[in-house]
Amino acid sequence: MTQSLMTDTRLPKDTEPYVDDAHRQPARPLRDFLASLLSSKSGLVGAVLLAAIVLITLSADILPIADPQKRSLSTRYLPPVWLERGVIAHPLGTDGQGRDILARIIHGARSSVIVGVSAVLLSGILGLVLGLLAGLRGGVIDLVLMRLVDAILAIPAMLFMLVVALVVGSGIAPLIVVIALTNWVVYTRIVRAEVLRVKDLEFVAAARVSRVRVTTLILRHLLPNILPAVVVVATLNVGTVILTESSLSFLGFGIQPPQISWGQMLADGRQQLATSWWISTFPGIALTMTVFSIILLGDWLRDYLDPRLP
Amino acid sequence: MILTAFGRLLLQAVPVLFTVSLIVFILVFLAGDPTVMMIPDDATEADRLALVAAWGLDQPPHVQYLRYMSNILSGDFGTSYSYGTSALPIVLDRLPATLLLTAAAMVVAIAIAVPAGILAALNRNSAIDLAVSGASVLGKAMPNFWVGIMLILIFGVQLRLLPVSGSGTFAHLILPAVTLGTAFAADLAKLVRASMLETLGQDYIRTAYAKGIPDWIVIGKHALRNAAIPTVTMTSLNVIALLGGALVTETVFAWPGLGQLIVNAIYTKDMAVIQIAVFVITVMTLLVNFGTDIVYRLIDPRIRL
Amino acid sequence: MSTQAIPNSPAGKEPVLRYRNASVVLPRPRGGDLPLIRGVDLDVYRNEIVALVGESGSGKTMTALSTLRLLPQNARFSADEAVLNGHDLRSLNARGWRALRGSHVGIVFQEPLSSLNPVLTIGDQIGEVLYHKRGLSRRQRRAEATDLLARMGLARPAQLLDEYPFQLSGGMRQRVMLAIAMAGEPALLIADEPTTALDNSVQAQVLELIVSTAADTGVGVLMITHDLSVVAQVADRVAVMRHGEMVETGDVREVFRAPKAAYTRHLIDLAPRIPAVVRDPATAQTPPAADAAAGTPLLELRNVTKHYVQPGNFWGSRTTLALDNVSLSLAEGKTLGLVGESGSGKSSLARIIIGLSKPDSGAVLFDGRDLFGPEQARRSDVQIVFQDPLSSLNPRMRIVDIVTEPLGEKQRLTRDQRRHEAETLLETVGLPRHMISRFPHELSGGQRQRVGIARALSVRPRLLICDEPVSALDVSVQAEIIALLQRLREEFRLTTIFIAHGLDSVYAVSDDIVVLEKGRVVEHGHRDTVFGSPQHPYTRKLIDAILDSDPDNSRFKRDKADYPQAARVSTQLEQTSPII
Amino acid sequence: TTAARAAPRSETLIIAQGNDILSLDPANHENNSTESGLINIYDYLVRKEFPNGEMTFVPGLAKSWKSDDLITWEFELRDDVKWHDGTPFTADDVKFTIERVKADQKLLSSAVKFRTVEQVNVLGPHRVQVVTSRRDPLLLHNFVGNGGLILPKHALETPEGAEKFFAKPIGTGPYRFTEWRKGDRLVLERNPEWWEGTPHWESVIVRAIPETTTRVAEALTGGVDIAVNIPPEDITRVEQNPDTGIISFNIARNFALHVRNEDGKVTSDPRVREAIDLAINRKEIAEIVAEGYATPTRGLFPAEIPGNNPDLTAENAFDPERARKLIEEAGVVGAPIKLSTPSGRWTKDREVSEAIVGYLQDAGLDAQIEVQEWSVYNSRRDADTLGELYLWGMGSYTDASVILNLALLRRFNPHWTNEEFVSLSKEIDQAPTEEARQAILRRAQEIITGDRARIGILYPKAIHSVNNRVNFAGRFDEMIPAEQVRRK
Ligand SMILES: Nc1ncnc2c1ncn2[C@@H]1O[C@H](COP(=O)(O)OP(=O)(O)OP(=O)(O)O)[C@@H](O)[C@H]1O
Ligand SMILES: Nc1ncnc2c1ncn2[C@@H]1O[C@H](COP(=O)(O)OP(=O)(O)OP(=O)(O)O)[C@@H](O)[C@H]1O
Ligand SMILES: [Mg+2]
Ligand SMILES: [Mg+2]
């Protein structure tokens, strides 16, 4: 009666979903990536929007637009071209110093996008390293790091802002540093939680049975399974950081002239919201669209990075 | 169990408060001499130095810190440079306004997000779902001050329905609470949708449907309660974020919360006020975490405190 | 084949459930329909237990769920005839379905924990059925629920009402599920794999309860399972499904004696049987005495003790004693079967031998050298195959990298060597070579487990530990994998530790058996000795719980009295016009 | 408290300022809006008024005063004044107030108030004598402005001390303290026993509304009666609103570029400094950036301030050609130059700086703006690390003599010296007549602007929104005493 266990399967096997895997060698990650992107509506919209924004940003200097810093007293408070008094030379109107809104939005995209992306990269990397440390080492290191995280969360970001502005000066780079300094805790928490989750999965145990080096364990087994969650959070975080920059501008701490940022335009233009709405509305729309595209892309990325979804 | 959690809270509080006070001290110290901002324009350098000496700011930093900490241990929380009075009551004065706004914003956020999230989850990929997603992206992408000012222009100036700014009556609370609430509702609605979807796919929901009880009981009792944990988590995170004061919203609506106090204290490098404010925020944060744990336990009997 | 009678059904009576040519189709996102079940004919009569068997994905659950309209969103149901307790299922509207559920048909799902709402009390979960289905008042509900729980054989039923599912053991939970299903006094009870998640001994109790419930109330039972021993033990009739179609229906004895369909025959061949020694200890082989004397064993555990520390209350933490002074030895080339209830410490032992955790005290000697001593033994000589084939493979690595990973980074294989090695390994475990570039999720469960075995074999280990390597798999796949392991054991001259729930398979593959109870070794000896004449009551209990796949040898005898037609007057259900 | 809260809106005056009261202690703040709130609670010994645009002192708690030698001053006090708790006001209170400021180093006014006072002698219950260390023609200036409001000795000299007192302070002023909701509002109620008669309003509320847009919105909707600092672009909106109007008036403030002239800076060359002066089109800035709500000037003190130099006008101050030529002569075409500025500290400060940068670029310099948050700006100024030029809006002075305060000069122009200027600062104390004193001050302004250590740009005007139900003309010292705001 133990025979049954020894018998080989006699029935024909189910037909395989993949008859031949030849087409999969070599793997075509780029093609898969694009195919997935193209087949997702939200992903596609997000990608196209974002690509357009980045493209415009990069080509700000060669586009046939006005000089964003050129003040002209004769053209102050011009409305957008489709309104009465609007002129074609300033399609989205001008601000109180006669500067072209469109040109400023296009040039301002650069600092907004740079701040968003670099602050997220910087804090992401910092948070990743510290999160890995806390999650893998545990014990005292974990305890200390997590208390530090609690502490950072309680300390107002403005304090960091002020100190960095005093010690290093103001500008884009210090702004990025400050945002990163307060933002890393987000990532540390996620990474730590993910490490704790993944660490106990059986494939990690299997890798340890295989005696892989710690670096291999981290790079090949932990990171690839942690990063998707981090990447998704990061995409959403880019939007948050861009918004943070605008709030800082509102408080007088953001990117300062002569550099242009959307946050600054929004904050400066808010006083004219009732009289010359276009000054802050258009940068607001640009910002909203950017954040929107990033959120859409993030939603798609979440699905794409999940290997179990088709 | 509650005692255990409370004990843990106390154990956590000490190291966190210590870390916080040290970091704040270092930062404020690095921010430089507060007397530069305090002294009148036409005072001399000697006058300024006299002020420095009067506040003991000429001592080496570690001496200042040790003195500060030992004062705290003896119940003296320091004197505000700019107000010239004890820092603690200055901070505590602002707490009610901050707590009120926080609570109201959360009520708004939950009142919007929970029904919207549930509707979206129940009608996945429908027009409702799309509308909720779109609205939540918009809500997330608009800066608070912009929303606030728009609300003032519309409801205050154009329609004259609500007071523009200030505090005191319920009507004053509405616009700032909506400004903050909608921003949080955006995130929250997505989360409610996701956790509802997850919950609705659970076996016990199938069991509930199989019992033949009305749908609203299945959703309202069986699903919602289980989906509530992530919602509670996020709400508590938002509450924590708001405890430090919703600076931008407070400024726009002239709301006398902690945020404005802290920022002004930071501008004037008012060490005692910053320290106490951060202390209070930390303690509140720990209390909120504690409260959250208790709420978890009330929602889900499996959770241990 | 519209309304013709199904052979072997109790003729001349109206069935509780009657399906003719029933099918469920699911529209594919990109057009076209995916049939989930096709042309199913099924009858269930009162006081009758019909078993629905078939491999995973064959449509058993879909069939069951279609009687409650709990199908996936968008799924379409159609049938020539679909009658439940006199109601035409094809023409019910939403309210009609709600009225039908609970009061005409009750269901018990496979996973007793996840099927109960974790945040509501037991009393609440039973009570709401009593309220909505029978309109009982608060006090009546409490009394009735207590009574129900008592009938389900639960001790202290009144207290249970205020407890939560997580406070109950698996068997208790399943009884509660049954109480919920029966609370609305249904005519049809569906039990979807009610015992798969349970321990052998608990399984027997739950089956007993289902059988007696059917006998006591006359409810018709549709029992879904893939375990043929369960079928043999409890069912009156059996229906076999494959690929969404019914391949065979018939009286359980007849089907087991003379299966008609090839597929049924195949299944019955795989059905577990009680080892002969259990029934007749005289057939035991005497263990070869010579073995015991033969040199140093390959693996020897001396007084291994292991505690786990878990965060507990305020000051201290809770410690669990997972292994208590465990000593055992295993000679080269032999297979050791490790059995014991869930939580008895089997996996803990495996993790220590493999080096994933350290014992608190005691020594593990491998080939004479202490694994945790200063001069450590070659660890790659010990490998493991894990229980869950999906979670033990990194979802983001290709098979080629997974199976060659233990070869180590030091060996510096070139890409081609790696590929070659991987292909050879896949061949060894009976997988096509081209699969090396796939990701784990692109493989079936059985294929994944083969990959897990290939990975373990890549370093030519001397000791292979299999920690429940088949419990997550389908019956037929289980058999394949066990056969594979048997073959490889001989081919590679492996010494093996085999951990499994199914005692019949442990018996089949092992030379020696170790029985663990709460971390202690309660019995250790040759398989025939342990199974044939168990010394410890715990061992006896485990062995008694093995079910035999022989309908004539059923332990669940019951009185098959004739029950009158639906005793309760069924409520008139709201209907819409038929949808067909 | 309840009386104030219950006061009908028509009987309540609501004033919206840009920031909260900083302190209820008149000697412990350096803030105009705070002073503006406190003058309703406390009184000055003498008051300053600006009839015909000239500052004059009129009686307050002192009925009269005299000094023959500008060293010994005698004040005759009113005898009908009572503190809000009913205690009579006496000479002791005056002595106490002065000595308190002089004694307590932590009080912010301590550094600048009553510096020359040596003794305060009580000559009778309502007569007090102040003796200064030297001739001080400006002694009366000490009794107006921050630190000058008189405090009650009896209530402050209790064991509980100042902290207790300022939790619910009393004064002699027209309104009694009711409540200070920090960060929100100061609430006052009528003091029916006020010595000058029954005050006009039943209650007065001074609100803090930091966000300009919000302040404007409150003004438009009638939420407040007076809203300070309306941005020029909102003027039309306020004026077109049926319930509100704009008032605008000169104030004691000036915008000037402070120029660093130390070696190594491009501005060490006097030609460059002159070019900067000539490059700026002040009229255009006043017209366009300030929408006409400012007076272009090269001077440092508006006409109302005693000792101002009326010759320093913006007439012919703009000469772009000559500016370009000077830059070329100096050989610094395209040289980088940085103009530091705060943003939002003073009305249109950053916009003014941006405009100046534009003119400097036109003149051939590579000018860049550097905007800094206010507290950073102060620290930078203190650390002497601002740009070659920085914008400063000095204000709230009552006399041009601050220009000759060398300590002050060192804080703002640390590297500039001028022999004549230094000797003038010594002579000023000895000036025999007021006329001679003002001549010295005029000369001092001529020197400092002539050497372009400071380049005057504008005298900004205050722009307030006032509800049509009240009358208020505005004051040069930017105070808004509730008693001077009247219902129509
Ligand atoms: N929600 C769903 N959407 C799409 N297909 C589904 C869904 N649920 C089940 N299926 C498919 O329907 C078929 C029948 O599934 P069913 O659950 O009835 O199988 P089963 O016989 O109960 O298997 P098991 O023994 O694994 O429970 C399977 O191919 C399954 O993949
Ligand atoms: N990492 C751990 N931390 C704390 N306790 C653990 C841990 N792993 C196992 N235990 C506890 O140790 C005991 C033995 O567990 P083990 O996993 O070895 O049992 P098992 O016999 O393999 O059970 P199963 O049949 O369910 O797999 C159990 O009580 C379990 O709860
Ligand atoms: Mg199933
Ligand atoms: Mg186990």
From TrEMBL, chain A:
The keyword Transport applies. Residues 109-298 form the ABC transmembrane type-1 domain. This is Peptide/nickel transport system permease protein. Keywords: Cell membrane, Membrane, Peptide transport, Protein transport, Transmembrane, Transmembrane helix, Transport. Coiled coil: none annotated. It comes from the Bacteria. It comes from Pseudochelatococcus contaminans. GO terms for biological process: peptide transport; protein transport; transmembrane transport. GO terms for cellular component: plasma membrane. PROSITE patterns: ABC_TM1 (PS50928). Residues 10-21 have a biased composition (Basic and acidic residues). The lineage of its organism: Bacteria, Pseudomonadati, Pseudomonadota, Alphaproteobacteria, Hyphomicrobiales. Its main location: membrane. It is found in: Cell membrane. Residues 1-21 are annotated as: Disordered.
UniProtKB/TrEMBL annotation, chain B:
SUPFAM superfamilies: MetI-like (SSF161098). GO terms for cellular component: plasma membrane. Residues 95-292 form the ABC transmembrane type-1 domain. Coiled coil: none annotated. This is Peptide/nickel transport system permease protein. Belongs to the binding-protein-dependent transport system permease family. CDD domains: TM_PBP2 (cd06261). It is a multi-pass membrane protein. InterPro entries: BPD_transp_1_N (IPR045621), MetI-like (IPR000515), MetI-like_sf (IPR035906). Its main location: membrane. Keywords: Cell membrane, Membrane, Transmembrane, Transmembrane helix, Transport. GO terms for biological process: transmembrane transport. It is found in: Cell membrane. The chain crosses the membrane at residues 9-31, 99-122, 143-163, 169-189, 239-267, 273-296.
Automatic annotation (TrEMBL), chain C:
Gene3D superfamilies: P-loop containing nucleotide triphosphate hydrolases. One of its GO terms (cellular component) is plasma membrane. It is found in: Cell inner membrane. It holds the Pfam family ABC_tran. It comes from the Bacteria. It is a peripheral membrane protein. The keyword DNA damage does not apply. The keyword Repeat does not apply. GO terms for biological process: peptide transport; transmembrane transport. Keywords: ATP-binding, Nucleotide-binding, Transport. InterPro entries: AAA+_ATPase (IPR003593), ABC_transp_ATP-bind (IPR050319), ABC_transporter-like_ATP-bd (IPR003439), ABC_transporter-like_CS (IPR017871), Oligopep_ABC_C (IPR013563), P-loop_NTPase (IPR027417). GO terms for molecular function: ATP binding; ATP hydrolysis activity. Residues 17-268, 299-543 form the ABC transporter domain. Belongs to the ABC transporter superfamily. This is ABC-type glutathione transport system ATPase component. It comes from Pseudochelatococcus contaminans.
